[in-house]
From TrEMBL:
<keyword id="KW-0560">Oxidoreductase</keyword>
<dbReference type="Pfam" id="PF02525">
    <property type="entry name" value="Flavodoxin_2"/>
</dbReference>
<dbReference type="InterPro" id="IPR051545">
    <property type="entry name" value="NAD(P)H_dehydrogenase_qn"/>
</dbReference>
<feature type="domain" description="Flavodoxin-like fold">
    <location>
        <begin position="1"/>
        <end position="208"/>
    </location>
</feature>
<dbReference type="InterPro" id="IPR003680">
    <property type="entry name" value="Flavodoxin_fold"/>
</dbReference>
<protein>
    <submittedName>
        <fullName>NAD(P)H-dependent oxidoreductase</fullName>
    </submittedName>
</protein>
């Protein structure tokens, strides 16, 4: 298996970085090929702009998604974007590794999604969900947060964690065709003991070794909708 880990934490000594290192060690040790895009170490530019394009289909008005398509086909995307697209196309499993900020991913990772998961390659028209450009690949979200586990759930104060992560799990990953595996979550990380952190890492190692046994999350299938994306009558 070929694995790309996109890591988004500013502190190399953080527990979140330890989670990334655990994945590299466990997956490499199991014989898989692993690449890491460490966004802060790369000084990744998260801002989508006209500077991403070497030539313009329309120089007078920027429609970002249309220029993504045009520049990919012309081979004139910014070099940093093209390099990351190639990594995603190479991988069988994409792991997004990050701390939860405001019920979402950090801005630097959102900017990676904005600039890399381009129209025409990752999605386009009715090439979405199980017909998306990344079908056949799997994705895993691994995150850390400060809240306790009991704060998330159907009756909990913050609600279901999958609901909070829906823009990422469904709106980005599943939308582009990835088969999305259940996320791995390290709860209450800034406040727990060293022993508890070691247990989280051990749990993550087991999680990574049982990916083939995990049931992917369920998202819409294009087979259930008509040409206008209206639900089919059953």
């Amino acid at each position: 298996m070929k694995v790309l880990i996109v890591h988004a934490h500013h502190e190399p000594r953080s527990f979140n970085a330890a989670l990334k290192d655990c994945a590299v060690e466990q997956l490499s040790g199991a014989g898989h090929e692993v690449q890491v895009s460490d966004l802060y170490a790369m000084n990744w530019n998260p801002v989508a702009s006209a500077a991403d394009f070497g030539c313009r289909a329309n120089p007078d008005y920027l429609v970002y998604a249309l220029e993504q398509r045009h520049n990919f086909e012309a081979g004139t995307l910014a070099e940093d974007i093209a390099a990351e697209i190639a990594k995603v196309q190479w991988c069988d499993l994409l792991i997004l590794n990050f701390p939860l900020y405001w019920f979402s991913e950090p801005a630097i990772l959102k900017g990676w999604i904005d600039r890399v998961m381009i129209s025409g390659v990752f999605y386009g028209g009715k090439r979405i969900y199980d017909r998306g450009g990344m079908r056949g690949k799997r994705a895993l979200v691994a995150l850390t947060l400060g809240g306790r586990e009991h704060m998330f759930g159907a009756e909990a104060i913050h609600g279901e964690i999958h609901t909070l992560l829906r823009p990422l799990l469904q709106g980005s990953l599943a939308y582009c065709g990835f088969e999305v595996l259940p996320p791995f979550i390290g709860y209450h990380v800034p406040y727990v003991s060293a022993e508890a952190r070691a247990q989280i890492l051990a749990d993550y190692g087991r999680h990574l070794h049982t990916l083939d046994d995990q049931q992917p999350l369920v998202f819409p299938s294009m087979n259930d909708f008509d040409d206008k994306l209206m639900p089919l009558q059953r």
